[in-house]
Structure formats: structure tokens, C-alpha cells
Amino acid sequence: MIDLKGKRALVTGGARGIGAAIALALAENGADVAFTYQHASGKADAVAKSIAAKGRRGLAIQADSADPQAITRAVDEAVAALGGIDILVNNAAVGLNGMIADIELDAYQTLMDVNVRGPVLFAKAVIPHLPKGGRIISIGSGLAERVPFPGVTAYAMSKSALLSFTRGLSRELGPQGITVNLVLPGSTDTDANPADGPAADFQRGMSSLGRFGEPHEVASAVVFLASAAANVITGAILAVDGGAIA
After folding, report:
1. What is the spatial distance between Cα 137 and Cα 134, in angstroms, rounded to a whole number?
2. What are the pLDDT digits (tens) for 77-122?
3. What is the rounded distance in angstroms from the CA atom of residue 191 to the CA atom of residue 156?
4. Does residue 119 contact residue 166 with C-beta atoms inside 8 Å?
5. Could you give the domains of the chain?
6. What pLDDT sits at residue 205?
7. Gap between the Cα atoms of 142 and 163, Å rounded
8. How far apart (Å, rounded) are the C-alpha atoms in residues 87 and 77?
9. I need a labelling partner for 29 at 20 to 30 A (CA). Which of 56, 58, 64, 87 fits?
10. Are strands 179-185 and 58-62 parallel, antiparallel or unpaired?
11. Catalytic residues
């Protein structure tokens, strides 16, 4: 077990899927955890109760990651409730499938607002609160490194922006002793992309292990990067994808 006792984390999009697994894994290892959600209030309440059952403080904060004012408010609420923030996990994201020629402008703008501007604004709001040893960990996608089929160009583009964001921000925050890293999940068994879905066999065929990942496996990578074991790891891109981009 990794020791995160005394650490305070904010996870964006933490009510379900990978985000919920990350929030629970951080709590399991000793951190107090605030997390945002947009619509899934029932699931958010369940995650908060599970965090409390582990003996940690848990706080669900309703906030739209496309709304700059909601982002600032969420950070303020997390800081007030937890007494500060040591770890930011930028997980909230939306998907967008379709050919570039057919993309609607509103859908594209929402994609960029949540997947690109959201992590930037959350980081901007959190940085003043991060102490030496602080962490910013973003959740990207293996599609940022490789786009093996059509129809996901815009989504892949939004996730590839996190590569430069992570590398550049690691340079900016390194002198303060704050690390910045990026996790790239591959196909992961969630409600949004179930392992028994219509495209599941195709996705399994792209990985070296021949299977989907589980949310807790992505969460394990985040917990490691949040820990003292990763003190000198920064600006790094960690694929958790079963070898899909090997």
C-alpha cells in the first residue's frame, strides 16, 4: 500500500468510470478526496460515501468543466473543505465521434472547452495552493499518440494537447518541487466503452495483452505518480493501455 496519509486531492469527473476509481484509490491509500461531477449526482453521492467508509474525507462538488466560473468555485470549495490541495487529477472529459467534415461547431467547442481548456483552468486555479511535492496528473488517451482508425480525429486532437501541456507545465513548476505527469489509458471497461460493446473485439485486437484495462488499473498508475515513489518523475507520459501503442 502506498502512503498518501495527510494528502488532499481534487479529482475532476470523479463520479463514475476511471475518475471514480481514481478517487477511491487515492482514499484507499490515505488521501482525503474532493471530486467534481456534472450530472451523475446519485453516483457522486455513492462515491463520497465510499470514501467516507474508508475513513477519509470525501466531497462531491457539482461543476461543469466547460464553465470557467464553475472551475474556480470547485477549487475554492475543495480548498475550504480539505484545508488545501496537494494533488490535482485532471480526469473530466467528453468524447466526440465523427468525421471532421461532419462535425458540428457546438460539439467541437464543448470538446475543446472540457478536454483542453478545463485542465488548463483547473491547474491555473490549483497552482497557488500546491505545496512543494504537489502533483498535477492528467488523464489523456492512447489516441493522443496513435490514431489507428477514422472518426476520432477531433477527440484525439484534444487529448494530444495534454502532451504539450504536461511537458511544458512540468518545466514551469519544477522549480517549486511540483511534478506534472500524464497517464494515457487505452481501451478501458467503463459505461462509456464497455468490454462487451460492439467495437470491443476490434479494440482488444489492437492491444498486446488482448484485453481491456480495468478502471482500477489506471487508478493504480495515478496513485503511484501521486506518491513519494515518483518524486523525480515529471513531464512523463505513462501509457496504461495493454501495449496498444507499443
Report:
1. 10
2. 999 999 999 999 999 999 999 999 999 999 999 999 999 999 999 9
3. 20
4. no
5. 8-240 (3.40.50.720)
6. 87
7. 11
8. 15
9. 64
10. unpaired
11. 155
Is residue 136 within 8 Å of 180, Cβ to Cβ?
yes
Radius of gyration of the chain (CA): 17
DSSP string, the chain: ----TT-EEEETT-SSHHHHHHHHHHHHTT-EEEEEESS-HHHHHHHHHHHHHTTS-EEEEE--TT-HHHHHHHHHHHHHHHSS-SEEEE-------S-GGG--HHHHHHHHIIIIIHHHHHHHHHGGG--TT-EEEEE--GGGT---STT-HHHHHHHHHHHHHHHHHHHHHGGGT-EEEEEEE-SB-SSSS-TTSTTHHHHHHHSSSSS-B-HHHHHHHHHHHHSGGGTT--S-EEEESTTTT-
Q: For residue 135, how far is the Cα from the chain centroid?
A: 12
Those residues whose C-beta lies under 8 Å from the C-beta of residue 143, and which sit 6 or more positions away, are 152, 155, 156, 159, 160
Query: What span, in angstroms and rounded, lies between the C-alpha atoms of 23 and 41?
Result: 15
Q: Decide if pLDDT at 13 tops 90.
A: yes
Here the cell at position 72 is 474556480
d(CA 132, CA 173): 10
